[in-house]
Amino acid sequence: MPERRRPVNLLLVAHGTRDPAGAVVTEAVAARVRHRLGVRVEACYVDVRRPTPADALAALPGPCVAVPMFLAAGYHVRVDVPAQIGATGRSDVLIGGTFGPDPALVGAAADRLRTAGLRDGDAVVLAVAGSSDPCAQADGERAARRLGRSLGRPVTLATIATGGPRVGEAVAALRADGASRVAVASWLLAPGLFQRTLDDCGADVVGAPIADHDAVVELVAARFHAAGAALSRTA
């Protein structure tokens, strides 16, 4: 009789925020993914708040796939997540692909912008958190190009915190160039300080964060299945 393989569990790894609303959204994503996949799912954070990856993995025995919920492959994805998971000593945890500028998520940002009131002729800014990491910067540029193709118009890339022109500056520059209306697409997953900064940037339209969009749940499922298949082959 063939050996029965242990089920693969899922660890969702987010950045972390001091804003309780951000954690509520992350936990809601975990609940939806749990229902979608029918596996054990725990959410954790690499910074600011608990549970940490080590905390969450203590509740996930056996083979596990960790999916980093990050829109750019910066320092947290390339260094923090592997280091914190590695420090647990677990050899049965496989880190799956991060979100990055996946076309499905770019489509989600476009949906949010249309829902917020985007009009034909509006100038568009894509607001990313910002980073000094070249990999993260490249992912932001890729997301802006893809959003431009999705919307059929130029998209200006701007940052909320660091690494490039700020969102407010980009909005003001577009108005100075003759734009009568400016719409800002949020390249953020959850509400918090950064989203509130966008709400006050002077744009006519500001899209909402994307974490509760169906595309996020489906992308987590895709990342889980891809990594889970690899994990099963090495079990």
Automatic annotation (TrEMBL):
Keywords: Lyase, Metal-binding. Gene3D superfamilies: 3.40.50.1400. Pfam families: CbiX. Coiled coil: none annotated. It comes from the Bacteria. InterPro entries: CbiX-like, Sirohydro_Cobaltochel/CbiX. GO terms for molecular function: lyase activity; metal ion binding. This is Sirohydrochlorin chelatase.
